[in-house]
Write a sequence for this structure.
């Protein structure tokens, strides 16, 4: 059983949704980044998603782009990212760790070597943001060979044939976008996801986790009420910068909002 499977099973017993937090590795520097990752877990994050600094992060909004730029200007490289993952894994052996990255990063190192190095560092999954499902088969094969799960993105307008590919090729969880566009905070989500969640469940895809725009406890509750198994917050956490107290307070508040009401528990049980 993977760390993701164990996490979802544990949370189901506690009647909670999953809270995932995203941070950019190496932002603003390697030492501070390690401290912030620990803060995120200690504040209650059930899973951690980490970005590898990249000069052209096309799926990310300005907050995360700026974080990647800060890390690169501080000298962060892929090996530094793996060092941070390795040390996080040593300190928190049970927490699922997922990498969000881009195809150029993998190909610069060699796709198979990157996957193997990521797994050796302690990562559980990898999401390659600019690889669509039609091109995902070799990435899925390389991930499985290395012992990683390929996380894939789905949206309310994803056609049924693509959902079938996602179910066949992916693992861990399904990253479902809560709104159109790039990553960032949002005052309002566009949660017309009932058909998407039903399609994913019918196809046998991993549990749906909502990202893109999650920034408040109210949005966490709204996302879980829509049928998601969990949420991922990114830009709102990255905005805290190196302020450990602000990061911990926000992460704790978002996690507290993952307690499920009776109606949410019924919906969550059907999806998971």
């Amino acid at each position: 059983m993977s760390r993701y499977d164990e996490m979802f099973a544990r949370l189901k017993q506690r009647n909670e949704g999953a809270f995932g937090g995203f941070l950019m590795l190496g932002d603003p520097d390697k030492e501070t980044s390690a401290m912030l990752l620990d803060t995120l877990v200690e504040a209650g994050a059930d899973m951690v998603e980490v970005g590898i600094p990249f000069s052209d992060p096309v799926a990310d909004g300005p907050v995360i782009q700026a974080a990647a730029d800060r890390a690169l200007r501080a000298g962060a490289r892929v090996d530094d990212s793996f060092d941070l993952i390795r040390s996080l894994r040593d300190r928190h052996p049970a927490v699922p760790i997922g990498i969000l990255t881009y195809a150029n990063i993998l190909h610069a190192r060699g796709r198979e070597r990157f996957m193997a190095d990521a797994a050796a560092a302690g990562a559980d999954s990898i999401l390659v943001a600019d690889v669509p499902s039609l091109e995902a088969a070799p990435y899925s094969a390389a991930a499985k060979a290395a012992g990683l799960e390929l996380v894939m993105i789905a949206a309310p307008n994803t056609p049924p044939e693509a959902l079938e590919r996602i179910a066949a090729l992916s693992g861990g969880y399904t990253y479902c976008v809560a709104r159109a566009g790039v990553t960032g905070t949002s005052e309002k989500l566009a949660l017309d996801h009932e058909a998407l969640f039903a399609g994913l469940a019918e196809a046998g895809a991993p549990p749906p986790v909502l990202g893109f725009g999650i920034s408040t406890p109210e949005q966490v509750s709204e996302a879980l009420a829509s049928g998601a198994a969990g949420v991922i917050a990114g830009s709102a956490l990255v905005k805290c910068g190196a302020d450990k107290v602000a990061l911990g307070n926000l992460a704790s508040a978002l996690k507290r909002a993952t307690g499920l009401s009776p109606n949410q528990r019924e919906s969550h049980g059907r999806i998971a």
